[in-house]
Amino acid sequence: MPIISQFYGILIQMFCEINEKHSQKHIHIRYNEYKAVYNLEGKLLEGKLPIKKQKLVEAWIVIHQKELEELWDNVKNGGSFYKIPPLN
Questions:
Q1: Which listed site, 23, 53, 56, 87, has its alpha carbon 20 to 30 Å from 45?
Q2: What is the SS3 assignment for 55?
Q3: This prediction's pTM
């Protein structure tokens, strides 16, 4: 799964096969032993993170929601992944 952003020890990944039909646009989050999946509107779909890291991820999603949607659509249409700026 390509890493599309990374900040404060948090890895943000996106995976979508061109031919695969995901039920919902989403991203995968990894932080140490924690894993979570969020939709592109910032709703936690599965897993968990420490509350402080959860708040950072949710803020990042709000800030970059349009870019996340564009990236998902780009990859689904045969384009390549690209990085999205981290939180600073």
A1: 87
A2: helix
A3: 0.90
How many Å apart are CA 64 and CA 20, to the nearest integer? Answer: 24
Which pair of structure tokens corresponds to residue 45?
């779909």
pLDDT (tens digit, 9 = 90+) per residue, 69-84?
999 999 988 899 999 9
Q: Are 55 and 44 in contact (CB under 8 A)?
A: no
Return the structure tokens found at 6.
């990374």
Closest residue by Cα to residue 71 from 30, 12, 31, 9: 12
Q: Where are the domains of the chain?
A: 3-76
d(CA 32, CA 41): 24
